[in-house]
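Hi D.,

Good news: the full-assembly prediction came through. Inputs first.
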Amino acid sequence: MPLHLYAVVRGTHPLPGDLTGVRDGKVRLVGSESTGLAVAVTDVPDGAEVTEDDAVRHLDTLTALLPGGPVVPLRLGTVAPDEDSVRAELLDDVDHDLGARLDGLEGLVEVHVDAADDEDARLRAILADDPGLRAGRDAAGSAQGTLDQQVRLGEMVAARLAEHRAADADRVLAHLAPLTLQDSPRGSDDGWVLRHAFLLRADDMPAFDVALDDLQHDYGDAVAFSRAGPLPVFSFTVLSGSGRSRWGW
Amino acid sequence: MTVTTQAVNRAPRPSSLADVLEVVLDKGIVIDAYVRVAVVGIELLTIDARIVIASVDTYLRFAEAVNRLDLQPKEQVEGLPGMINELREGGAEHKTKGALSGVKDTAQEVLSSVTGDDGDDEDDGGDAEQERPRQRARTSARSAPASRRSRRSRTDGEA
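Then the structure:
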């Protein structure tokens, strides 16, 4: 029976009791004696396609594995024909550098933070700051205002909006930087103050949450912060040698 | 004095499907021979809805939004810190007239307001009328920025 592959872990990785994955399959480890590595798998029917629900269960399974030790996620939709091929083509293939990857991820987690501002309040602040914009508004809003003027006004507003959001994003990043090892934008932040992934030590999660609370308190209703995680490390390339020296611990 | 206490929304993983897909779709190590490319049931729309296009429609929406702002009580406020202080000091009622009520306007409506068809009710159009969409928008922004965002871009698409 084919196997849905979730993540490479150490052979000694503890599995949470009754952990189920896609299609409610029971998660088990397929281990390699020679390398001491294992991969978390569930059985899947032959020819089964990957669904949206599978995507959610895949991520849930990875997240459930995380407290037990480092987790190297496999790409969603990775399906192997049988256990022997998993060992031969994944676990025992030195090209994948899996031992070093696992060591590099020891004690690290990824956290996603979104910051969405109150656009209404933001627009007020922008207008209050900028007499030119108010003049543009008055011209465009008057009875003689043309569509061109409307578009120009909107363009100016959009530009100022982006500037203000970028300035806030810098403040947020500066506030969180002491607690994080790396950060990376997650796709476009158009329309947001910030959408970022952070790499941090699992031990620093409580302090990170406090820092986010501080930010939320400072911004009040103006910006709503949300964070998802801790997640396995997806967005950062971490290898033991260079990683340890670069971060200095 | 009203102090707003807004908590950071925390979740073990991204709450919306779009955000889950963003995490798992293109990430993780690849064993070439094993990866099945097709993911069934994931509509392109899910991804596309997250792209906010900087277009004339967007600009018109912003223009409409600032045209609707009643600036009178806000003229003295300088910048975001001042704005936050004002919010903490109970200025919340000023915020109920809102730019976000403009979000749902289509470009067509913007055009008609430019030509004066419904230009009368912009500033005094009734707080109650504008308060409701305002609060809905705030709630969804708090719990799920992604849905707020996709709604916004869908609106753009309809225009």
